[in-house]
Design a protein that fits this description.
The protein is α+β, with helices and mostly antiparallel strands. It contains 6 helices and 10 strands. Strands 1, 2, 5, 6, 7, 8, 9 and 10 form an 8-stranded mixed β-sheet that branches. Strands 3-4 form a two-stranded antiparallel ribbon. Strand 3 (about 30-35) and strand 4 (about 35-40) form a beta hairpin. The longest helix is centred in the last third of the chain and has 27 residues, at about 185-210. It is globular and about 50 Å long.
Amino acid sequence: MASGQLSRAEALACSDCMHACHVMLYSDTNAQLFGRTPIRHIILMQMRFDGLLGFPGGLVKPTEETLEAGLSREFLEEMGVDLPVSVEDHVESSHVPASSTSSSTSHLITHFYVKKVDEKQIMEVEKAAASAAVDHGQEVLGLVRVPIYTMKDGGGLAAFLSHSFIGNARFQLVNSLLRFNLVTPEELHKAHTHSLRICSNTAKDLKAALILTE
């Protein structure tokens, strides 16, 4: 078990901890980008109110509801769709990384789920998220699809991974890509390598932009 990770039972035994559940929804697809680049899989994430990328979900209260019931409730609020989530969809539970904790979240445990649906259901969620979800435009600024392909210029997954994620969401995404064989280790290694170069260039751009404010 990786550092910081807990079994489901260990996580639930932490009575003085806050608990948050999130889910990665994905489907297979035969669609192609520009008619030539296979998209292969549709993976949903969201742009949060704080400008960070994350997965649908939120805080739950294990003393009042099951983890899955709490996650389904949060999903309905954020996505506008009633999505049944089961124990079988649970992937891991872990403490929030120290780098992303604050005085208010130092005892936060996240529970991560992955649920595969068909492409039609993905599109129904996308439509409902923008038209029926209570949190749309407030806690959730919009849904995004994760580009898991890599283009000739390095665009795609590498550029996506260079963005800012909430807590351990980036790790959850990368780990799930490998766990469910959505990309190969070689593809992911190449994307990470290029992503580091993108981050370096972004830092230079930010420094140049900062000069404009001085």
